Amino acid sequence: MHPSSTIDRPVEPIASSSRTWARAFGDIRDGLNARQLWAHLGWQDIKQRYRRSVLGPLWITIGMGVTALGIGLLYGLLFGNNPATFLPYVTVGFIVWNFVHGCLIEGLDTFIANEGLIKHLPAPLSVYVLRTVWRQTLMFLHNMVIYVIVAGVFFVSISHAYTLTDKITPGATVTVHPGLGWSMLLAIPGFLLIALNGAWVALLLGIISTRYRDIPQVINAIIQLLFYGTPIVWSLDTLGTHADTAALVLQFNPLFHLVEVLRAPLLGQQIVWQSWVVVLGMTVVGWVLAMFAMKNYRARVSYWV
Amino acid sequence: MVSIDVWNASVDFPIFDAKSRSMKKAVLGKAGGKIGTESRVPIIEALRDITLSLQHGDRVGLVGHNGAGKSTLLRLLAGIYEPTRGSSRINGRVAPVFDLGVGMDPEISGYENIIIRGLFLGMTRKQMEKRVEDIAEFSELGNYLSMPLRTYSTGMRVRLALGVVTSIDPEILLLDEGIGAVDAAFLDKARTRLNDLVKRSGLLVFASHSDEFLMELCNSAIWMDHGQMKMRGSLREVLTEYKGRDPFEGMSHEQLERLGQLPVLPNGDPA
């Protein structure tokens, strides 16, 4: 073995350059720059799922419509809620929940699902995260068609101050929502915050899940439980005298706050600033943790998948 | 300046079996004290102490037995694996052609796959759309490009992959042995294109078991053995040592001339 030309050879770096902030932030920057790549992959995923079906991705919209209509009417009848206001509530609740849930669940699997690509093509890890979040965003946009329809049909009942329930429980305070208005614009930052949270979850938990394959199962179980503990098919407003206790417990459910920052503006419900503060806090803390994970374990992911 | 530098790099793969990969052992192991789980994860030393410097114009062949670390070295040079110990620096746009099934979606058309692969290699959609004609012509796939990729044979996939990487002017081209699946006529065509490419832009590293391919594409070689570099030198030296005989022996004058392997007389003229 003889060394090749040593004339122009640069000096060896003192420490291994894998675990640096520069590389971690560089990964995110390069990932964002490869917008065409992840946008294409994300869209491809959706097309792939509905390949050879006649209606294609329209099935996302139809599936959501059927669920929302069914649950809205059923729960409206069962619990004596006003369908004209409760059906939009359930619809938007499901749409937002699906987005949050999709980002979480598929975020955990981001790197595991892209194993082949990670091992064979050099690309920033963040490309796969963006692919996942973008796919969920596209699903969300498909579902928003249902929102537009439902909001249109029930416009008369939610465009002014309204309540979710007809029943008046003695001793309970009745929450009156202000109805659709300018506060709807808050849906945009609300959506962006959820997407930002989805991205850090995919990065941080994605890395952890790649190393410890039990983590996705554990988190799946927790999220399933949290679904029942999050007001999607039920509402705090209709709980009557238990509402205060429930509201207190819900403060500790991060998914409740995530759902709330997008659902409330879309329905013209009361804006609870507490939820915005919690979600902002989660975004900051989550991203700090995710960047630490990126700094230390970014280069390990291709070994672990 | 296109270059790859690797200093004392090692690549160790942790092998997590079903048990040690789970949290159970990590958690329970900690609670029990003493025995660290990490140390119980078996490690495969795929590469050990690789020091290497490749520059513009290098056309390096990788030889060695199965499992000697050729593919892992290619992935290290591509930047897919960052060394567990030591360090590496890659300057230049890398285009790898490794596993031909990966990065290609079997359900979508060849045309779509060209676009996706191009995007992965850092091109834009527009740039790739301009090249589709050229790739179609080079790969001779014609109407097959609108068929789903699952209908392609291995050789056709190689044609497509080579068409893409050679059309985009990469600076560093890394080829794994899979490209052996193409027929002789196509290889001839590919050789001209690959040679042009390497002359124009950069460097080529090619892992193969076929002397013929190596002689066509490379001028120097590295012999990998048990994850280490056993020998580095001109292709002829390394192949002679590796095979135990000179592969260029018995070749006609024309062949040698074409491969640039004519012995050089003291006055500098080819014999």
TrEMBL record, chain A:
List the subcellular locations: Cell membrane
All residue ranges annotated as the ABC-2 type transporter transmembrane domain in the record: 39-265
User: What is the membrane topology listed in the Swiss-Prot or TrEMBL record?
Assistant: Multi-pass membrane protein
Q: Identify the keywords attached in UniProt to this record, alphabetized.
A: Cell membrane, Membrane, Transmembrane, Transmembrane helix, Transport
Listed GO biological process terms: lipopolysaccharide transport
Q: What is its main location?
A: membrane
Question: Where are its TM segments located?
Answer: 58-80, 86-105, 140-162, 182-206, 218-236, 271-293
Q: Name one GO cellular component term.
A: plasma membrane
Task: Tell me which Pfam families the record gives.
Answer: ABC2_membrane
Cell membrane in keyword set: yes
Cite the GO molecular-function annotations of the record.
Answer: ABC-type transporter activity
Q: Does the keyword Cell membrane apply?
A: yes
Q: Which family does it belong to?
A: Belongs to the ABC-2 integral membrane protein family.
Protein name stated in the entry:
ABC transporter
What is the scientific name of the source organism?
A: Kutzneria albida DSM 43870
TrEMBL record, chain B:
Does this UniProt record's set of keywords contain Disulfide bond?
no
Name all ABC transporter domain ranges. 23-251
Listed A to Z, the keywords are: ATP-binding, Nucleotide-binding, Transport
- What protein am I looking at? Putative ABC transport system, ATP-binding protein
* Organism of derivation: Kutzneria albida DSM 43870
Taxonomy of origin reads: Bacteria, Bacillati, Actinomycetota, Actinomycetes, Pseudonocardiales
Q: Name one GO molecular function term.
A: ABC-type transporter activity
> Which cellular components does GO assign to this protein?
membrane
**What CDD domains has UniProt attached to this entry?**
ABC_KpsT_Wzt
